[in-house]
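Now for a sample.
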Amino acid sequence: MVKKTKENKTPILEKKEKKSSLKTKKKVAKIVHKSKEKTNGWIFPVIVLVLILIIGGIYYFYPESKESDLALVEVNGEIIYQSQLDELWNSLAIDVKAYVTRDVVLDELISKTLLMQKVKEYNISVTDEEVAEYMEFELSQANLTLAQFEEILVAQGSSIEVLEQIYREKLEFASLFDNYVLIDLEVSAEEIEEYYQTNQDAFVKDENGTIFELDEIAYEGTEITVYDVVERVLMQEKAKSVYDSYVLELKETSEIKFLVPITGINDLYEETLSTGEEDLAGFANCLTESGAKFYGAYWCSHCQAQKEGFGESSELIPYVECDQNGPNSQVELCSEVGITGFPTWIINGEKYMGKQSHEDLAKLTGCKL
């Protein structure tokens, strides 16, 4: 199947100037590169907001294809080969293979290919010094010397050179997200307070049930407060939602053609825009009648993409504007139901972050396409 880029579509990657819909005059947290510290002793881990932690789990390093290799998928003219899939599959731990299938790994490889294409399009690169600094940080976190690390890599059939390439690509992806995708990502003081109040059990610090205050130090020997930790937790949740929406939009606006039948994965790329306008109107009305709500912001490109999927019937979907500067804004409602990122669907009391396919909306609401 070939999926073609829609005409007149807002570019996915653009440095935006709009800000969060829930922004107030109080302190607002933004993504910053804070010092990386090793800490101990509190219930929440220190979360480093580098997107490679979210999109990680499979090597970023792409093995070279071999002669007479089987071509599996063409992604914007770039071929993914069987040997690439095999090498990624073989790199997974046995316990991971117990719940991950090859088609899921291939889908991940398609995602990484699309992201790497964007890295190249924007001429993103990192220096050898940055790679070395990152590797030094990883070694310090693992309490390993370079010699010990090399010994482990050799035992795994890898090498420092391969690892350097993996780290280089991780840093390039991080730069892509930091500079083009997560610019608008913010967490307000109100969101932090709400999370703190609704998750009190997570902030118990002793057997007497004493609760940490927001301004208390969370980790001994650091200046990291409970407020900082909650900020990072919420920021990571939002970043994950943005990542999911961003990759989905890349897939929907790219030319992806499967060159051989692949069980399980083709269904992930079924075209959803072929539904007739009359059917979309009925589907949109059903979503509204089901009580589902679609929360977004007028400046959110993923929200616009969700609307565009309904064509002229987009006015019929149960949309709620969460930016105070948007038309028919309902900021208070968005705050009351705990909206922390866009787009967010609430269906039968459950939140679903990111752009949803028509098929998923149909399954979740019982509405027919």
User: Anything to note?
Assistant: The radius of gyration is 22 Å. Residues 1-271 form a domain with the Triger factor/SurA peptide-binding fold fold (CATH 1.10.4030.10).
